[in-house]
Amino acid sequence: MHVKKNIATSESGFIFNPSTGDSYSANPIAAEIIGLLKEGTAESEVKAQILARYDVTAAQLEKDWDDFVNQLTYANIFEK
User: Fold this and answer.
1) How far apart (Å, rounded) are the C-alpha atoms in residues 26 and 10?
2) Number of folded domains in the chain?
C-alpha cells in the first residue's frame, strides 16, 4: 500500500488530493501513519511503531487499521 505521490500532507494532519480537489483532516496518529506510509515505510513497520508508541492491543490496531485503510481507499489516497 502506497500513498499517491501527488497527495499533499502536513504535520498538523491536513491532507489534500490535487487530482480531485478534496481535502481531509486527520488526527495526530492518522497523520503520523500517513506520513510514514508516504515515506515508504512498510505497513508491518508502521504497525510495529504504533504498537510500541501507543497503548493499543494488536487486535484493536488490526481492526482500526482495516477501517482506516478502507477510508483512505475510498478517498482515493492510495496507489493501486
Assistant:
1) 10
2) 1
- Which amino acid, residue 10? S
pLDDT, position 62: 96
Q: Which domain holds residue 67?
A: 2-79
Q: Whole-angstrom Cα distance, residue 59 to residue 7?
A: 29
Q: Which residues contact 26 (CB under 8 A, 6 or more apart)?
A: 13, 14, 15, 34
pLDDT tens digits, 44-60: 999 999 999 999 999 99
Distances (CA, A) of 15 to 32, 35, 36, 39: 12, 10, 14, 15
Q: How many CA atoms lie within 13 A of 6 on its CB side?
A: 9
